[in-house]
């Protein structure tokens, strides 16, 4: 091969590589210095969002844009940061995708909207509001604030969330609560299952309800609860021997039960229209 | 004319003041013409929603948020609501289905019993939602129109969820009719309305899927 052909080949490779890299993922780094109790809002249609607690007063965002068909619009007003994945015309799900990794102060509050991409939030103790269509939503090690989650069909899991005012609304997505407690914990599901594994602590109110989804609650033998459970058309079971109590409805075996355990510190309401309900005793 | 200059005069343009220079810029700039198309779409959607059913304040908040993102409106003087206030407002929205459920429950208590209502209704366990009503309500039509531009799979998912929410409401209304003193069925009915409210909220949130 002549020197000229070699040079032409090398140029072609460089040009093709440049085109390929130009159309590929682009990494965008953003950094903000904020005060106490900052607020971050993120709106992303496609792609995963992972948020973890970092150091106070620092927000670091790494956005991986999968193509030039999507942009990250940012705006700031004092302690409030807004990030929006701005999808440009002619894009599809793959090219409009942006993956975010963020570290935010532990006391930050978050508002996150996602279409289908995962939302994972870890060790944040401010208020959290998360919404998604089919996005799986994972909350780990958070608490001390309001946690509001709304999803159509994404699975929701809360793990080791304490002292939170928690409200979860789901249509078809299963809701799994593990090690979750607080003064108010409410799950309102349609066909999604509700699973709770915890202590029903904090003298809280725990309201779990569904239309057709099954409800399964796992509690320790030492739980201190006042329980009402009823399914209009589904089977209702309890592994505990509860102290009977008066109820406004007939506590029919197999369709409803009511009673107390221990000092009945927390109120537990399990209601379904046609889902099965099972209050299980954890075997230690 | 630059894009920045066009955006600066966009409010006047939307109100009908068109100059040849602006028209020429629109013809040559895809970004600005797309922006204009988006805004016209928002305007038509908002008019549609107002015409069919009065939506929650969240609808207007979503439109306002979109206009802010586009840089069309600013509020340098008026203080923004605090996080706490936002939560309070959001929580308040849930009162709408609650109020609706209470009205329905009240109506069932005060209206005379219709023929057929006296008969005990034994319903089999529900594993699938009942058939959708033949006539689509104005609210349902509004919900589906707001997601009309989304990908087919997402639209189908909304339709399924809407059917489930309606089935939930129908079944609980029946339960409340059968026993108007059953406060737990009433609570479930309120929860069913909350689910429909959630569907509505997620549908009108432009950030959730419209491009």
Overall, the morphology of chain A is: elongated
Strand content of chain A: over 45%
Share of residues in helices of chain B: 55-70%
**Unreliable residue runs of chain A:** 10-22
Please give a handful of descriptors for the protein shown.
heterodimer; A: 13-stranded mixed beta sheet; twelve-stranded mixed beta sheet; 1 helix; 51% strand; elongated; B: mainly alpha
Write the layout of secondary structure elements.
The complex is a heterodimer of chains A (284) and B (211).
Chain A: H1 3-23, E1 26-33, E2 39-44, E3 49-53, E4 58-65, E5 70-77, E6 80-87, E7 98-104, E8 109-114, E9 119-122, E10 128-132, E11 137-140, E12 146-151, E13 156-161, E14 165-170, E15 175-180, E16 184-189, E17 194-197, E18 205-210, E19 215-219, E20 225-231, E21 236-238, E22 243-244, E23 256-261, E24 266-272, E25 277-281
Chain B: H1 3-14, H2 20-28, H3 30-52, H4 57-69, H5 83-93, H6 95-110, H7 138-146, H8 152-178, H9 183-204
Helix pairs in contact in B: 1-3, 3-7, 6-9, 8-9
Description:
The complex is a heterodimer of chains A (284) and B (211). Helix content of chain A is 7%, strand content 51%. The termini of chain A are far apart. Chain A has one helix spanning 3-23, and strands at 26-33, 39-44, 49-53, 58-65, 70-77, 80-87, 98-104, 109-114, 119-122, 128-132, 137-140, 146-151, 156-161, 165-170, 175-180, 184-189, 194-197, 205-210, 215-219, 225-231, 236-238, 243-244, 256-261, 266-272, 277-281. Chain A is elongated. Chain A has a 13-stranded mixed β-sheet, with no helix packed on it. A twelve-stranded mixed β-sheet of chain A has the order 1-4-7-3-9-11-13-15-17-19-25-21, with no helix packed on it. Chain A folds into two domains: 24-117, no CATH class; 136-284, no CATH class. With 211 residues, chain B is mainly alpha-helical. Chain B contains nine helices and no strands. At the A-B interface, strand 5, strand 6 and strand 12 of A face helix 5, helix 8 and helix 9 of B.
């Amino acid at each position: 091969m002549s020197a000229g052909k070699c040079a032409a080949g090398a140029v072609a490779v460089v040009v093709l590589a440049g085109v390929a890299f130009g159309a590929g993922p682009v990494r965008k780094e953003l950094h903000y210095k904020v005060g106490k109790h900052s607020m971050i809002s993120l709106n992303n249609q496609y792609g995963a969002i992972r948020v973890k607690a970092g150091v106070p007063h620092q927000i670091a965002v790494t956005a991986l844009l999968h193509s030039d068909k999507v942009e990250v619009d940012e705006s700031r007003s004092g302690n409030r940061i807004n990030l929006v994945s701005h999808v440009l015309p002619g894009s599809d799900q793959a090219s409009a995708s942006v993956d975010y990794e963020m570290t935010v102060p532990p006391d930050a509050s978050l508002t996150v909207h996602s279409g289908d991409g995962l939302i994972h939030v870890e060790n944040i103790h401010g208020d959290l509001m998360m919404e998604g269509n089919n996005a799986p939503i994972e909350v780990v090690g958070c608490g001390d604030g309001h946690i509001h989650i709304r999803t159509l069909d994404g699975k929701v899991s809360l793990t080791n969330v304490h002292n939170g005012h928690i409200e979860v609304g789901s249509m078809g997505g299963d809701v799994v609560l593990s090690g979750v407690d607080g003064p108010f914990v409410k799950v309102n599901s349609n066909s999604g299952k509700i699973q709770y594994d915890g202590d029903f602590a904090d003298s809280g109110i725990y309201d779990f309800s569904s239309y057709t989804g099954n409800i399964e609650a796992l509690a320790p033998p030492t739980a201190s609860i006042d329980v009402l459970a009823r399914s209009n058309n589904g089977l209702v079971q309890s592994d505990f021997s509860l102290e009977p109590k008066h109820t406004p409805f007939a506590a029919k075996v197999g369709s409803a039960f009511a009673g107390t355990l221990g000092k009945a510190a927390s109120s537990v309401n399990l209601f379904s229209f046609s889902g099965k309900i099972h209050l299980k005793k954890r075997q230690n | 004319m630059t894009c920045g200059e066009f955006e600066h005069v966009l409010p006047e343009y939307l109100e009908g003041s068109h100059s040849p220079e602006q028209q020429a810029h629109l013809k040559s700039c895809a970004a600005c013409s797309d922006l204009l198309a988006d805004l016209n779409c928002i305007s038509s959607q908002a008019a549609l929603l107002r015409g069919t059913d009065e939506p929650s304040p969240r609808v207007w908040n979503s439109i306002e948020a979109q206009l802010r993102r586009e840089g069309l409106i600013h509020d340098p003087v008026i203080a923004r609501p605090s996080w706490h206030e936002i939560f309070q407002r959001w929580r308040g929205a849930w009162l709408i289905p609650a109020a609706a459920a209470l009205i329905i429950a009240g109506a069932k208590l005060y209206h005379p019993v219709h023929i057929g209502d006296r008969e005990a209704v034994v319903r089999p366990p529900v594993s699938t939602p009942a058939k959708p009503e033949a006539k689509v309500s104005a609210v349902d039509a509004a919900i589906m129109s707001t997601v009309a531009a989304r990908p087919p799979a997402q639209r189908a998912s909304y339709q399924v969820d809407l059917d489930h929410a309606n089935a939930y409401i129908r079944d609980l209304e029946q339960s409340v009719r059968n026993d108007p003193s059953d406060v737990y069925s009433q609570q479930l009915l309120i929860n069913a309305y909350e689910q429909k409210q959630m569907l509505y909220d997620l549908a009108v949130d432009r950030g959730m899927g419209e491009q």
